[in-house]
């Protein structure tokens, strides 16, 4: 106790107690110094322990938050009930199955609509304007069908029909002669670019008039976010939105020839001296699980893998739009996942 008192003011103590030896003073100072250092070390260690605990808790909190955020993604969709409002709703965390389905889609843009009552069954980036690649050929086919040019007329593939933009391959060699009906068949079923270009080139007024007709028809159908600059879809400037493409599906569904040509599994034509077999680019056509009314695929680098269909699911006519999917077969897998989702929700609505 005296050491503590003396240590508070050593100079004052020395001046008032002159008979105290200098060794005593030195002993008090040394004892105080040792005590102060020990106390300071203890305090510093305590602060370090608290800091470590706080850091550990903070890291644990951050990791937990990250896990929760990964487990519960934000999903946008709308109710399946015909009487429901079609505004976008956000799923609560109590719908993990639908969230898993959303996360499993490989397509950047996805849209599903019930054609009977216009109810949106599913949507993901549905208002974005995107390149549509060979989906453009549906509009090409619609212009040809409504022009009522003779389907039996022979058209010839020329150098003008060769793809100079992307150098895509074609089995229709220069000089190949086919009927207008055969050209339309291959353009829709096998997405033959040279066939689509030949159809447009032989339209009254040629390619410029044909492209004008495509854009005029888009405006007439109310496709406000759609624009075409050529008939094949090889240009990334051919763009649209899922909602616009549903309007195109409705229009082409009224043409029996387009229904037939887009849903044929295969078709054989004479190319030169040989007959060649062409297959449908939509592998789902060959599946007995699907009842497809209209189908078209597409691909360029800027558009990714694309697929649009008018099909029946549980006796409901449904439009499915998938754009910019990654992977050769991912768009077909996404279509299956969306069909399963619609079927499950339909069953729940009937319970």
Report on the architecture of this protein.
The protein is α+β, with helices and mostly antiparallel strands and 351 residues long. It has two domains: 2-68; 76-350, DD-peptidase/beta-lactamase superfamily (Beta-lactamase, 3-Layer(aba) Sandwich), CATH 3.40.710.10. It is built from eleven helices and 13 strands. It has helices spanning 2-8, 10-16, 22-71, 96-104, 136-147, 180-189, 193-201, 206-220, 242-252, 256-263, 330-350, and strands spanning 76-77, 89-90, 107-114, 120-124, 130-131, 154-156, 177-179, 239-240, 266-271, 274-279, 291-300, 304-313, 316-325. It has a five-stranded antiparallel beta sheet, sandwiched between helices. It is globular. Mean pLDDT is 79; it is low at 1-39 and 46-101. It comes from Paralcaligenes ureilyticus. Substrate binds at residue 296.
């Amino acid at each position: 106790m005296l050491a503590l008192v003396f240590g508070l003011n050593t100079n004052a103590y020395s001046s008032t107690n002159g008979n105290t030896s200098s060794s005593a003073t030195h002993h008090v100072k040394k004892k105080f110094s040792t005590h102060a250092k020990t106390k300071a070390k203890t305090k510093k260690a305590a602060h370090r322990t608290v800091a470590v605990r706080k850091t550990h808790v903070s890291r644990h909190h951050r990791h937990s938050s990250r896990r929760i955020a990964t487990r519960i993604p934000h999903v946008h969709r709308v109710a399946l009930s015909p009487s429901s409002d079609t505004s976008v709703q956000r799923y609560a965390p109590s719908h993990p199955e639908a969230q898993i389905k959303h996360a499993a889609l490989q397509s950047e843009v996805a849209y599903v609509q019930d054609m009977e009552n216009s109810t949106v069954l599913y949507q993901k980036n549905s208002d974005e304007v995107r390149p549509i690649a060979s989906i453009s050929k549906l509009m090409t086919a619609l212009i040809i069908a409504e022009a009522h040019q003779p389907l039996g007329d022979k058209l010839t593939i020329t150098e003008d029909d060769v793809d100079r933009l992307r150098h895509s391959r074609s089995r229709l060699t220069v000089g190949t002669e086919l009927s207008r009906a055969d050209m339309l068949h291959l353009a829709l079923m096998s997405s033959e670019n040279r066939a689509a270009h030949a159809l447009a080139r032989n339209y009254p007024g040629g390619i410029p008039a044909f492209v004008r007709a495509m854009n005029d028809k888009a405006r007439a159908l109310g496709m406000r976010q759609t624009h075409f600059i050529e008939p094949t879809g090889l240009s990334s400037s051919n763009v649209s939105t899922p909602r616009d493409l549903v309007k195109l599906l409705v229009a082409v569904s009224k043409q029996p020839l387009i229904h037939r040509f887009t849903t044929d599994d295969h078709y054989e034509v004479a190319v030169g001296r040989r007959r060649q077999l062409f297959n449908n680019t939509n592998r789902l056509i060959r599946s007995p699980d699907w009842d497809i009314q209209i189908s078209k695929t597409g691909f360029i680098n800027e558009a990714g893998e694309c697929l649009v269909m008018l099909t029946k699911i549980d006796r409901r006519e449904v439009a499915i739009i998938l754009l910019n999917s990654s992977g050769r077969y991912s768009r077909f897998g996404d279509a299956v996942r969306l069909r399963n989702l619609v079927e499950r929700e339909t069953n729940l609505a009937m319970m």
